[in-house]
Amino acid sequence: MTELNALYQTDYSAWAIRTAELLRAGRYTELDIEHLVEELSDMSKSDRHELENRLTILLAHLLKWEYQLTTLSERWREFDGRSWRVTIIEQRNRIARHLQKAPGLKAALAPTLIDAYAEARQLASDETGLPIATFPLACPYSIAQVLDNQYYPAANASN
């Protein structure tokens, strides 16, 4: 076990600082490659997981906006979807910041949107009490629409 490998086991912060120093100095042969690769992989997974979670919440609220807003507005005149709008705005802002900080995630948007939609569809069904079949099997929104601060889906006429 190398000194750096041992440091990883006992003091992660010190390991990270030392690893960064070695990288900056170009001393690649001294790196703890096994743990470095593991950490980089975990960072990528964490970033994508964050993106998927934010997209799931955003998509669920877009679905609720489209499929339940008019029903609720008819029952409760004061319900205008304001809390949903706040959540939609917040998730869009957080996604935009996340993509700004990790621009490589833009390439993962399309497959992540597909994964997030499946969860969002179930979440929207659970939260609204509407049958899951109410919501389309495939995501009805393009990536551009999902990320567009001005986009809100029209209320579905079949409700």
Characterization of the model:
The chain has 159 residues and is an all-alpha fold. It folds into two domains: 1-31, no CATH class; 44-147. The protein has six helices and no strands. The longest helix is centred in the middle third of the chain and has 43 residues, at 33-75.
Descriptors for this entry?
159 residues; mainly alpha; elongated
List the helices and strands and how they pair.
Elements: H1 3-10, H2 12-25, H3 33-75, H4 82-101, H5 109-128, H6 143-147
How far apart are the termini? 65 Å
Q: Hey, roughly how much beta strand do the residues contain?
A: under 5%
Name the assembly state: single chain
Main pleated-sheet profile = none
Number of distinct helices: 6
Low-pLDDT segments: none
Write down how many β-strands occur, each being a DSSP E stretch of 2 or more residues: 0
- What number of domains? 2
Portion of residues within helices: 55-70%
What form results from the Cα inertia axes?
elongated
Radius of gyration: 22 Å
Class from helix and strand fractions: mainly alpha
